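in:
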């Protein structure tokens, strides 16, 4: 039980109590469900890999977005991880392609540019027809540093490099917004 709890506890966002609940839950599964659960994990580990073009996760050579004929190949949206790609896709607003970095530059954690999928991005830009790259990294210190680093690499290639807008989320109260969010909202204001 302790080993199972420890394994669940290594998952991101899972604390000790949640890890214990998950361990107890799996122990109460009937054998067929437990085997199916374990097999699903192993099958995903065997079949899922990075897309040959955008580095998203897929079980084919190219992911569904890269295979789609109706996407605008002149725009590439750079995201930190596949979950960010899925969040943007849920809006049904973006029609370009993506590139997944699989992390951000974080010197304090020992993560440099070489640990990310940056050379793959540069390679596809040099061999493709991209005209704009949208930096959609998270608005954290590491996300900002990564966006600035990439923009310095990409601008000399003659590309337009843009950044997602920041601001106060819809439905939020200004009194609860932090200073950085409010400052970015003021900087990114637009005429109505």
């Amino acid at each position: 039980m302790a080993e199972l709890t420890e394994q669940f506890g290594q998952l991101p966002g899972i604390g000790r109590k949640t890890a214990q609940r998950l361990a107890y839950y799996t122990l109460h599964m009937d054998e067929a469900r437990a085997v199916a659960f374990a097999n699903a994990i192993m099958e995903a580990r065997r079949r899922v890999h990075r897309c040959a073009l955008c580095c998203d996760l897929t079980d084919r050579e190219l992911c569904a977005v890269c295979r789609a004929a109706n996407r605008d190949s002149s725009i590439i949206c750079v995201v930190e991880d596949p979950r960010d790609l899925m969040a943007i896709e849920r809006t049904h607003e973006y029609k370009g392609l993506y590139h997944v970095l699989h992390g951000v530059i974080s010197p304090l954690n020992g993560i440099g540019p070489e640990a990310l999928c940056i050379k793959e991005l540069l390679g596809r830009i040099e061999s493709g027809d991209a005209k704009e790259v949208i930096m959609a990294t998270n608005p954290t210190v590491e996300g900002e540093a990564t966006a600035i680093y990439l923009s310095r690499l990409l601008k000399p290639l003659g590309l337009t490099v843009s950044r997602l807008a920041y601001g106060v989320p819809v439905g939020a109260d200004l009194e609860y917004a932090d200073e950085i969010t409010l400052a970015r909202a003021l900087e990114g204001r637009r005429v109505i």
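note: The chain has two domains: 2-47, 53-163.
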